[in-house]
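We emphasize that the prediction below concerns an isolated chain of 289 residues; any contacts that depend on oligomerization or on bound cofactors are therefore not represented. The input was used exactly as deposited, without trimming of termini.
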Amino acid sequence: MKTYENAYFRTGNPFSGKCSNFTWISHYRLSCLFNVQLVISVASNQKELFQLVNLYLMKNLPFIFTLCLLMTVGCKKDKDREPAVSDIWDIDKQGIPEFVNTNYIDIAKIQRVSRFRSSVGHDYSDAFEHCRSMKHYFQPADSVNWSEVKIFCPVTGEITRVEQEWAGTKIEIAAEKYPAFRFQIFHINMAVALKVGDKVTEGLQLGKHIGAETYSDISVIVNDPTRQGRMVSYFDVLTDGAFQAFVLRGIPNRSAFIISKEERDQNPLVCSGDTFTSQDPLENWVILQ
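Result of the prediction step, given as a token string:
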């Protein structure tokens, strides 16, 4: 007589990894199937072993069938949590949608705005470009109290990041309409307590700019097919209605706020870490009238 121990061998947690929706199934029930030590005594031939295993399967078939069904549903639910197609946006193929109707800051109190890919501040670039500031700084006028400049939510969406900075708070918002587009707003003195996962609505006053120790700034990053993230200009995503606030301040074209990639590449900057160490021959600011 030969003894075969662990014919149904220990498989560990079958729900580790992608499928994790079964914590409500008791550990005892799982042990009945997956951690069982089946000791089969076999006389001398494989036929008897097959019959014993088949008998075990038939006896436990209802439970096995139910568990497999639950695993299928659970895996599907976990799969549903994976990024949908709408969470990815290919700028090269799909272009950049103009969908932001609300300016994130009180434009009436702003004196000038830095250009996309400027040398203002520090290197802030994506995985496809380097040594350039791929965000916009908004400098309030000297005549206003910088700490009284209101900051608004530019889109309806979900908070995906909240970080305390050396001056104020930085938040990131994933747009509901275009989930691949995320807005980062820096140096806010928050008026509302927000955490990751909170829903916010367009036009909600998030707070005020932290103060005169730094500019207010905003960046827009797009979850591209490579999942590395591509940055675009805030002015690229404004609707004509939202951009009208700048037209009224003497800037008729949104391209005025953007240094093209080609122009910047022809006039490269030098960086040491994230610090610009070279002179920039290009104009960095747009003065509002």
